[in-house]
Design a protein that fits this description.
Shape: globular
Radius of gyration: 28 Å
Strand content: 5-15%
Helix content: 40-55%
Distance between the termini: 43 Å
Number of strands: 13
Structural class: mainly alpha
Length: 691
């Protein structure tokens, strides 16, 4: 989600309509397949007693795939279903139905980045957890194809990623849970004829199996990660058991907001949570459970009327300022909400109470600088200078400044009746950037029930915005308003103990994204990545137009671009290797080559050149950056002490960059060794070798 450019995909309503049609067709195909299977079993008199019990209803659960049918990602996911010996039509009467369901959900939940970073052994083998043949498989692939070697870890838990695994468990849990309260009470299926579900009793049995798998795998890994993270924050050895310390707040605006939310009606459910202070994070605020919450239960339920968004403000705001907001509505939700938050803060400072006052009294005030967009420039230059994110930060800072200069001075001069209070105090650039940061950092993107063709909307959700980001979150699916009553529901994906901090997922974001949009970083972030842009001229100099055109044709043919990335804890992407193989192919061979650069090398000479070029590029990126420790020597001690909070986040970001590059350099070094040895053994290749 690019918070400063465009939050909505073009033609998103068409994509969502297509996804709805695809899901309906999949469900119809599942019903027909189940009916044919039941009919065949009844004719052969070979069905089990359990299947005979459910002979009059469907026992098949459909796992939805929202990728566009026929797209490369959809085709690859269909192949992975075959590789994993499963389908997206899961018969719940089979003994291994839970494992088959999880496999299908893992494949369905693969996002675009995970598809890009698919390893050479394929996600299918990772999902199957086949680590017995892993090392032999890698050695065989290296011998046959001279591919860049991979790093192995025999103790690794075979997840695609924490994001994928938590999303897969959440999807499976949602598919198996009772469709509504009526079905749960009556112990029968209350699904419509158009979308039939397997009997509740059957789904509950598989749900218990899912819970057992989750406790033994995902929750164990989550606890290990959280213990290490807490120990690091508290400055104690990671081998020491670090207990969770959540001090529940008993007074203050955050407590008042929670009580206010609880008083807004029976449909507002905030009784299981409370704002808390986290001692391991210097008493930063979070949200913790006041009772044990079981997986599948709702953590929070926030009615639509309590969600704060630009549409609601444009309708409810009265007077000259409201008229101005309605005129500016076409400027977008970010502009509307930034101006309105500035107005609300002005009212708070002048003791004017409003319906929304507690929202902003419980959130950071205008004096706090949340992200590098508002940090002092000297901190940005010292902490982030010579890093990949530096130019982006400076560009966005200037972009926000230009937006303010183009908007506010003109409005203040031409519409003075719409703006109350002292202009320098309440409508300055500092207040503008602070309000924009607040909106960007705390807003959630949700899909409304009505007018769904309009796509998604961004909202501030009371109480829920206290939740912090976690690599292993307790809740991942909270972007859809409940159809029956338009409540924003936060279902627990795994069990939460009393007094445990509740974590949400902001997405599989790198530390660069987290720092830019939210102002913090995470140590050992598995999603840390670095973008790499390849260039024709830097690799081959100025070539003849026909040679460059041929290289471009090969890139298009194999669906490759010049923009790539490397990620921590991931192999070198196949697309990156294939692209650099094409760019480094000898000029005399580029017109003759008709193979697949994703499958094997073009020639030994070009393979050696490709590995050397990538090693040189990554080494240049590494040498251009300063280490995290070097920050300590760039400024006086007194200045560093005053800005320690900002510098600590910069150090986390830089450490993650070095870890990501070092892992990639290690893989490229092994690739260089194998390609160099192969080239020496082979000598000069003939045309037959590379065709």
């Amino acid at each position: 989600q690019n918070l400063f450019i465009s939050k909505h995909t073009p033609n998103s309503h068409l994509i969502k309509k297509a996804a709805t049609i695809i899901l309906a067709r999949q469900r119809q195909a599942a019903r027909e397949a189940a009916a044919r299977q039941q009919q065949q079993e009844q004719q052969q008199h070979g069905c089990s007693n359990e299947k005979m019990m459910y002979a009059t209803t469907t026992t098949t659960l459909v796992v939805p795939f929202t990728d566009e049918v026929g797209s490369p990602h959809w085709q690859r996911k269909m192949e992975m279903l075959t590789e994993c010996e499963t389908t997206n039509y899961i018969d719940l009467t089979t003994a291994n139905s839970c494992e088959m369901l999880l496999r299908a959900c893992r494949i369905s939940c693969l996002d675009e980045k995970e598809m890009y970073f698919e390893p050479r052994e394929t996600w299918g083998k990772v999902i199957l957890g086949d680590k017995g043949e892993r090392i032999a498989f890698e050695q065989q692939q290296q011998q046959q194809q001279n591919s860049p070697p991979t790093t192995s870890n025999n103790n690794k838990t075979f997840f695609v990623s924490p994001r994928n695994e938590t999303s897969a468990h959440a999807m499976a849990q949602t598919l198996l849970m009772p469709a509504n309260e009526n079905e749960c009470n009556n112990n029968n299926s209350n699904s419509s004829e158009e979308y039939p579900l397997p009997p509740l009793e059957l789904r509950q049995r598989v749900l218990e199996q899912l819970r057992s798998i989750r406790v033994q795998t995902l929750e164990k890994d989550a606890k290990d990660f959280e213990d290490i993270e807490r120990a690091r924050r508290q400055g104690i050895p990671t081998s020491t058991s670090a207990s969770v310390v959540c001090k529940i707040e008993t007074k203050g605006y955050a407590v008042a907001l929670t009580k206010w939310a609880a008083s807004q009606g029976k449909d507002a459910n905030v009784s299981k949570v409370a704002p808390c202070l986290l001692s391991s994070m210097n008493d930063a605020r979070g949200l913790c459970a006041t009772e044990d919450i079981r997986a599948g239960e709702n953590i929070l339920e926030i009615p639509r009327r309590m969600l704060l968004d630009a549409g609601t403000i444009c309708i409810s705001e009265q007077g000259p300022f409201g008229d101005l907001l309605r005129i500016l509505e076409r400027c977008g939700a970010d502009t509307i909400m930034t101006l309105w938050i500035m107005k609300e803060r002005m009212k708070m400072k002048t003791k004017q109470e409003t319906f929304w006052s507690l929202y902003f009294l419980s959130l950071p005030d205008g004096s706090q600088k949340l992200t590098p967009l508002s940090w002092p420039e000297d901190i940005v230059r010292v902490g982030l200078g010579n890093t990949p994110i530096f130019e982006t930060v400076m560009h966005e800072r200037q972009k926000v400044r230009n937006g303010y200069d183009a908007l506010l001075p003109s409005l203040l001069a031409n519409c003075p009746e719409s703006f109350e209070g002292n202009q320098e105090e309440f409508w300055s650039y500092d207040q503008y950037i602070s309000a924009l940061e607040l909106w960007m950092s705390y807003a959630m993107t949700v899909k409304p029930v009505h007018n769904s063709d309009s796509g998604t909307i961004d909202v501030l959700s009371p109480v829920a915005f206290f939740c912090n980001h976690g690599i292993y979150p307790h809740c991942v699916h909270y972007s859809q308003l409940r159809l029956s009553d338009e409540c924003l529901v936060f279902p627990a994906m795994r069990d939460i103990e009393k007094n445990e901090e509740i974590m949400l997922s902001y997405g599989a974001k790198s530390n660069g994204e987290l720092l830019l949009f939210y102002g913090f970083c995470i140590d050992d972030n598995p999603y840390d990545s670095i973008d790499i842009t390849l260039d024709f001229d830097s690799l081959n100099g100025v070539e003849k137009p026909e040679v460059r055109k041929r290289r471009e044709e090969l890139l298009v043919k194999h669906d490759l671009t010049l923009n790539h990335a490397i990620r921590k804890n991931a192999e070198l992407p196949i697309d990156l290797i294939a692209t650099i193989r094409i760019l480094c192919c000898e000029k005399e061979l580029v017109f003759l080559y008709d193979g697949d650069p994703k499958a094997r090398e073009i020639s030994m000479l070009s393979e050696s050149k490709a590995s050397d070029a990538l090693f040189t590029a990554l080494s240049a990126i590494r040498s251009s950056m300063s280490s995290a420790d070097a920050i300590e020597h760039r400024a006086p001690e007194e200045w560093r002490a005053a800005n320690q909070h900002y510098l600590n986040e910069c150090k986390k970001y830089i450490r993650g960059l070095f870890q990501t590059i070092d892992v990639a350099l290690e893989q490229v070094s092994m690739w260089r060794q194998t390609s160099s040895l192969a080239a020496k053994k082979l000598g000069k290749r003939t045309h037959r070798d590379f065709l």
